[in-house]
Design goal:
alpha+beta
Length: about 140
């Protein structure tokens, strides 16, 4: 006879619980009403600089429609700008606005605090292992 299905042993359930915990921590720390996805877009732009909206979506794991919505909301907050690509008018180049660039040091510190709070129950070796395993799953 096979073992009974135990929800508490299922990776999807455990990932969802961990994600919910992280989401709650994120919301208590984050500024400017930013969502995790908006935060990811801003931090990726800080890493790579101006990039097409399509490429930005790929770099942050977003589909085309979601990337457009996130960029539009960040534009409304004056955190990014969008301009036509001079080489291909079909593309929009997204970059941090002056306001967005000025916010990056604070967001960096908040991101580190959120990660620290999320991983607080784990030891150093466990933290490294979790990050390595999540990269492998992603």
């Amino acid at each position: 006879m096979s073992e009974p299905y135990r929800l508490d042993d299922q990776v999807g359930f455990l990932l969802r619980l961990a994600s919910q915990r992280h989401g709650a921590i994120f919301q208590t720390h984050m500024t400017n009403g930013l969502t995790p996805t908006q935060f990811a877009v801003l931090m990726r732009l800080a890493e790579v600089g101006p990039v097409s909206q399509n490429h930005l979506g790929r770099l942050t794991g977003l589909d085309v429609a979601t990337a457009k919505g996130v960029v539009d909301r960040l534009r409304a907050k004056d955190l990014v700008t969008a301009s036509p690509d001079p080489n291909d008018g079909r593309l929009r180049i997204i970059e941090l606005s002056a306001t967005g660039r000025a916010l990056i040091p604070e967001l960096t510190a908040l991101g580190r605090a959120i990660t620290e709070a999320t991983l607080q129950p784990l030891g150093a070796d466990e933290r490294t292992a979790v990050a390595k395993l999540l990269r492998k799953l992603g």
